[in-house]
Design brief:
Blueprint (H helix, E strand, L loop, with lengths): L1 E4 L5 H14 L22 E6 L2 E11 L8 E9 L6 H18 L8 E8 L3 H8 L4 E12 L14 E5 L4 H14 L7 H7 L3 H6 L1 E6 L5 E9 L6 E9 L8 H15 L4 E7 L3 H9 L3 E12 L1
Parallel strand pairs: 4-5, 10-11
Antiparallel strand pairs: 1-2, 2-3, 3-4, 5-12, 6-11, 6-12, 7-8, 8-9, 9-10
């Protein structure tokens, strides 16, 4: 058995391991062939495969998200998956192989920010939780996933005076940068990167039906936004994500108004369910989503280790 970097010849086998794992842990993080194009995988250099006699029996992958503030961390999102019946020591081997690469990949990041390795774990993944806990990972936050039945009544909220609602579909650099400027101001702890957003806007589900419902101020700047795109496993479900309002327009009911308009738009186009995720530390946002009719589905715990 050997540990090798990803190569195209092993794609189907790697996805087979993923598929088997998903059947046992249906609420675990998903990984599809489309995700291989994610630029945060560093040209797929951030994937390591365990290969035994030409057969993939496990893999580790990590995504890197850089921050540019000393107040926040760089985040490295790591996952390790092994085939059923494989010796438990393989997880250790994959982890020990990935760790130096994680350190090397982040060594050129903004130096004033620290680095956290993060792992999302569903409730059923007890073996994975024990593995990382035994290596010093501790609980940080939970990602809570919520769903809204669009057949139920949707209560409207007024848009603050001076603002308008527009449907955006950024394609060119100026449009993407305009959106990023607003998004990064609202999520300084976990900002999106241009290269990731450019990739996301090229994904089939986004090209088909994705859009940004944005509120614009009199100068055409984004005051608030909701990103809408279909679920890649069920087109009747739509994600309502990246919900934000820039500081100047907060506490005026804009987030509630934008979310209500988004739900009405999805309902009008025949969608059945709206989905979103929220971290457990954003209590006011979670309360707003509950008031808008979203209900808790499940959570993924996030364990972290500072390096």
């Amino acid at each position: 058995m050997q540990i090798v970097r990803y190569s195209k010849e092993y794609t189907e086998q790697m996805l087979r391991v993923q598929s088997v794992y998903e059947k046992k842990h249906p609420l675990a993080e998903r990984f599809t062939v489309e995700d291989l194009k994610n630029p945060l995988l560093n040209g797929r250099k951030n994937i390591f495969l365990a290969v035994d006699n030409g057969r993939v029996i496990g893999f580790a992958r990590f995504l890197t998200r850089q921050n540019f503030s000393a107040d926040h961390f760089h985040h490295v999102w790591l996952d390790i998956i092994v085939d059923e019946g494989v010796d438990s020591g393989l997880m250790s081997l994959l982890y020990e192989t990935a760790l130096p690469s994680i350190v090397d990949t982040t060594s050129n990041f903004f130096p004033a920010a620290g680095t956290k390795i993060c792992v999302k774990i569903a409730d059923s993944e007890t073996e994975k939780k024990d593995f990382f806990s035994n290596r010093g990972f501790t609980h940080w936050i939970d990602f809570e996933y919520m769903e809204r039945d669009l057949k139920r009544e949707i209560i409207s909220h007024p848009i603050p005076s001076g603002l308008t609602i527009s449907e955006l579909k950024p394609k060119k650099s100026p449009e993407i940068l305009k959106y990023l400027l607003a998004e990064q101001c609202c999520f300084p702890d976990s900002p999106l990167e241009y290269k990731y957003l450019h990739y996301f806007f090229s994904r089939p589900e986004w090209k088909n039906e994705g859009l940004i419902l944005a509120s614009l101020d009199p100068k055409g700047k984004i005051a608030g936004s909701v990103m809408l795109y279909p679920d890649n496993t069920d087109n009747s479900k739509f994600h309502t994500e990246e919900i934000f309002v820039v500081e100047r327009w907060r506490n005026k009911g804009l987030a509630r108004a934008l979310l209500a308009e988004s739900l009405k738009l999805l309902k009008k186009t025949g969608k059945d369910r709206a989905l979103l995720s929220v971290t457990s530390d954003r209590t006011s946002a979670k309360r707003m989503y509950e008031e808008a009719g979203f209900r808790f589905l499940y959570k993924r715990e996030v364990l972290t280790l500072k390096i």
